[in-house]
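Please produce the structure of this protein holding zinc ion.
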Amino acid sequence: MNHRLDGADAPYWQGLERGLLLLPRCRTCAHWCWPAGHRCSACGSTGMVWEERPLRAKVYSWTRTWHRFGYTESLDLPYVTVVAELEDCAVRLMGRMDDPAPANPRIGEALIGRVDETVVGQDRIPTIVWSRAA
Ligand SMILES: [Zn+2]
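Below is the modeled complex.
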């Protein structure tokens, strides 16, 4: 079974497939619960609401991939992967930079995201693709 269909984070993937970033927030204490789980990591509540968030973030960390591995033939080498920290809730999300060979990102640099997809083998995985904010 595809974990994107039935895992605790399934609404995240379903949102991305519609071009939206949805994140779980505790209905009791308003904590952003990411990675997604069935209980709030702050208060233990099971009441979650999925809220749409803007794709605005800053670079928390990044890496450049120079060598091909496991079914990533759809990506031009080298490519840059970032851990982006959302501006308004400090949730950190993985994604890749839109330019296949951008200048090195700077920690804290502002990013704007959009939803695209990454072809991995026979699978098309919804992916957040980040660009430098103008
Ligand atoms: Zn809570």
